[in-house]
């Protein structure tokens, strides 16, 4: 049986999971990212994490693809890391090729948010032509699905919605620019607000206890205006909303949707946009990466006659 390995790399945790050719998932594991990223040679550290996982699973010889999900900027061909702020040692490195050589396995990679989006897209009754995903967690993740494929842009950096400039915003963004909307519209901003205004409140209760505070109301409205801007540019069939912030108890999803729709150009995309909520869980990044690995294999690996196998989708 053929297997696909999904590796979801986040700033805090690295998650691994296998999927077999019947799209059954196996062996979810989570390790601290700093356990390998903090080494002098993080690529060797990542190789060891993957090798140990496959050795324990006993499936190394059957793995057809390893798919990495990374929260950074990748080259258009998805071979080179251009910018990964929490592991700068990997910047400008052909990570996919180097890791493939070290593991002796085909390795591909993409932005982690595209794996979340791929999981959500495969939950729909059929794949849309155009869809956008916005996943609000520590940062503002954005995935673009245009003409039935992920859009990466001319240089690989498309979908950086969190880095559009916001007028009157003097904050310095970790990307090095001033005024990025993500500095005021992200889990990081919420954490800072909590430290200043609600230090004794558990983070997950912010909207339950302070949802009517003007700062948090404006946080939601600002997010809605930002999303509506992209909707008016791209005119998608679907908008997928997800991420840890939006799944917090008491988060005003209805207000967010009203704010988005109040700024949509009519008659379209106002009348044609369908908004759905993501099914994101702790395992979704891995699951989406596994499905993306299988998709890559089916698209680019000839099967026998040289004709790629059709993409399998499972509800």
TrEMBL record:
InterPro entries: ATPase_NBD, ROK
A single MF term (Gene Ontology): kinase activity
Keywords, ordered alphabetically: Kinase, Transferase
Highest taxon above the source species: Bacteria
Record CDD domains: ASKHA_NBD_ROK_AlsK (cd24070)
Annotated family: Belongs to the ROK (NagC/XylR) family.
Protein name according to UniProt: Allose kinase
Organism: Rouxiella badensis
